[in-house]
Write a structure and sequence with these properties.
heterodimer; A: alpha+beta; Beta-Lactamase; 3 helices; 5 strands; B: mainly alpha; Recoverin, domain 1; two-stranded antiparallel ribbon; 2 strands; 1% strand; EH_dom (chain B); EF_hand_dom (chain B); EF_Hand_1_Ca_BS (chain B)
């Protein structure tokens, strides 16, 4: 499973993959999925921001894995790639994982020493992501 | 070793001498020369096969232990208010909890583990009292805290003065001599005062926050690298709201000072730096002492206090940053400490919660486990319950559809109630859109109202009569009702005065509608408040992002 947090300008702020082999493939997948995310955001361009759901759901399934997306109000995108064989993961669990990610991201933003757009080095964030990935794998 | 550690000079082994002696033993066993400087090295634990007898002898008879036990809690409670050297000197002949003369070197964790495990674990294993138990378990913890560190943690005036000097030099000198005697994560009284003064210089109100940017500028002056400052912030901003309260600020400042003095930053916030702990610690020690004495006397009844403190500890333990470091054993460790602080933290928590209501609401998403402790739950929950549910929205009639007769019934019943209580202004709301129509309506209603004072059987008659009026003037009915609903809204204060003025009904007693208006205004204000609260929550969330 792999989790990526990317900025509004679509460069990555945080990347973490478990297991670490095939990491490049995950990166590539996430990069392409950013297109899908952007498409979904712009699709509701005319509607008010409030009405847009933060959780974007399954972006697209490939043969091996599923990609889920989530975008915050400040256009920071979270993309999660999970194994398709892991059928135990339900939509609600993915939602809760994204919610936790969002909360941790908010905590990072509260830190005045963090400049938006920096790579994320926070240990609390790392711990949270690690524990989440342990749950999934 | 005896000579070097100073025991020969003072004539006995106080805790300071004992520690230094142990450290020197370790040094000697590791091959270092037996000198004071060698205790500054990172040393493995000394091997103590032979020393067992010594420590038992040193902690002497049960009588002495007993006396020590009572002294221990007494000193324990003076956690951060170490009236150091004065009381330290006095207590020294009596018991361990006193101020060491020399300050220990820069490996506090290992250093303290030694005396704890050997000094207390062996000699007190026989004691059944609640004070014996913590010390036994203590050696399993690797974070020094609580009663024994309270015993040994009294900072000598020497170290404090050096510390003050280093602090007053704006934290720019890593003064290696200013080592806290045993617990680097415990804030002394002088330090606390210094931090409070610094807080005041940034933010005059001690109960308020320091914003993130102000704190950032302040801590950047300490010339620590930004990632470390970022980590310090993460550790000390427990509620993650982007601002520092006084205890959070003290914790952050303390971490900065520790870092500048060469200590590595911990992965999670030490317990002594938790905001709850710091707030409790800021209370007067005298009260704590008297409280604890009463507890220590009721030893058989110590169980409830033990549970009390355990839950209190659990609450503190579950603050997210501390999950890794707090062990089960700490519950018992804490009880000597927390028994007194628990009672105090409740009222403090109360204040704490009142100050930080906004923070709590914004953290509603996080699973903050604070409420799990039953001892403090009631107050916290009460506070939370008081804050989070909004005032019940006064929406009496929004669900009414336009031409439903049942609704008419309800309206009329409300009208009857209003008539009984005072003059409900159904006529006045009808005025603005169609003054002429509503006036006739009002006249008809005036006629109807006297009838409505009777039981519901009349209501039906009225409703049928009303229906006719409805049929006769359909557009005005919805307008009237809508306006009545709007009276619950914001326009009431504006409409009602004008309506009252323009009302030409002879039956209308002008002053009675005013009374009704005030209650309606209240309801209007309440809905407005509720709407504003909701808007605030959304904005706060956007803001935090």
């Amino acid at each position: 499973v792999s989790i990526i947090c990317s900025s509004p300008q679509n460069y990555p702020l945080y990347i973490r993959s478990v297991p670490t082999e095939n990491e490049l493939k995950f990166h590539y997948t996430v990069h392409t999925s950013l297109d899908v995310v952007d498409e979904k955001i712009s699709a509701m361009g005319k509607a008010l921001v409030d009405q847009r759901e933060l959780y974007l759901g399954l972006l697209y399934p490939t043969e091996d894995y599923k990609v889920y997306g989530y975008v915050t109000n400040s256009k920071v995108k979270f993309v999660m790639v999970v194994d398709s064989s892991n059928t135990a993961l339900r939509d609600n669990e993915i939602r809760s994982m994204f919610r936790k990610l969002h909360n941790s991201y908010t905590d990072i933003m509260c830190n005045p020493f963090y400049n938006p757009g920096d790579r994320i080095h926070s240990r609390a964030f790392d711990n949270m992501v690690n524990s989440m990935m342990m749950q999934v794998c | 070793i005896t000579e070097v550690c100073g025991a020969k000079r003072v004539g006995y082994f106080g805790p300071a001498q004992f520690y230094i002696a142990l450290k020197l033993i370790a040094a000697a066993q590791s091959g270092f020369p037996v000198r004071i400087e060698s205790i500054k090295n990172e040393l493995p634990l000394p091997r103590f096969m032979a020393l067992k007898n010594d420590s038992e002898v040193r902690y002497g008879t049960p009588a002495e232990l007993h006396g020590v036990k009572f002294q221990v809690p007494h000193a324990t409670l003076e956690k951060n208010s170490y009236k150091r050297t004065d009381e330290g000197e006095k207590q020294e002949p009596k018991s361990p909890p006193m101020s060491p003369i020399c300050s220990p070197p820069a490996s506090p964790s290992t250093y303290q583990r030694i005396p704890l495990s050997y000094g207390y674990g062996k000699s007190r294993s026989g004691l059944e009292q609640q004070h014996g138990a913590p010390y036994e378990i203590r050696h399993s913890t690797h974070q020094q805290d609580g009663p024994s560190s309270g015993n040994y943690g009294a900072k000598p005036a020497l170290a404090c003065s050096t510390l003050n000097r280093s602090l007053s030099a704006e934290r720019e000198q890593p003064d290696s001599s200013a080592h806290y005697s045993d617990d680097p994560w415990r804030i002394t009284e002088e330090q606390r005062d210094y931090y409070i003064n610094q807080f005041r210089s940034l933010q005059p109100d001690l109960n308020s926050f320091i914003s993130g940017s102000v704190a950032k500028n302040f801590f950047t002056k300490s010339k620590l690298p930004i990632p470390e400052l970022s980590h310090i912030w993460e550790l000390s901003d427990v509620d993650c709201d982007g601002a520092l309260t006084l205890p959070e600020f003290c914790a952050a400042f303390h971490l900065v000072v520790a870092r500048k003095n060469g200590y590595q930053l911990p992965e999670t916030l030490p317990e002594t730096l938790l905001p709850e702990y710091l707030q409790a610690a800021s209370l007067k020690p005298m009260r704590d002492c008297s409280l604890f004495d009463s507890y220590s006397e009721s030893l058989p009844g110590g169980q409830p206090s033990r549970d009390f403190s355990r839950t209190e500890v659990r609450r503190a333990e579950e603050v997210p940053d501390n999950s890794a470091l707090l062990q089960d054993g700490k519950k018992e460790d804490k009880q000597a400490l927390k028994v007194s602080t628990a009672l105090k933290t409740i009222p403090k928590e109360f204040q704490h919660l009142t100050v930080k209501t906004a923070a709590q609401e914004s953290n509603a998403l996080k699973p903050r486990p604070r409420s799990r402790s039953y001892s403090s739950t009631s107050i916290e929950d009460a506070m939370k319950k008081g804050e989070e549910p909004p005032t019940p929205p006064p929406r009496p009639q929004k669900s009414h559809s336009r031409a439903s007769s049942l609704d008419l019934n309800k309206i009329f019943q409300q009208n009857t109630q209003a008539v009984r209580s005072g003059w409900l202004p159904p006529p006045p709301p009808a005025l603005p859109p169609r003054p002429s129509v509503s006036q006739t309506e009002q006249v008809s209603e005036v006629e109807l109202h006297p009838q409505m004072n009777r039981p519901p059987s009349q209501a039906e008659e009225n409703s049928s009569a009303k229906k006719e009026v409805v049929l006769a003037q359909p557009p005005s009915k919805p307008a009237r009702r809508k306006l009545r609903t709007e009276t619950q809204g914001l326009e009431t204060p504006e409409l009602s005065p004008t309506i009252n003025v323009t009302s030409s009904l002879p039956a209308v007693k002008p002053h009675l509608p005013v009374q009704k208006q005030s209650s309606k205004q209240k309801r209007a204000i309440q809905t407005a408040i509720r709407k504003n609260k909701e808007a605030n929550a959304v904005l706060a969330r956007l803001n935090s992002e």
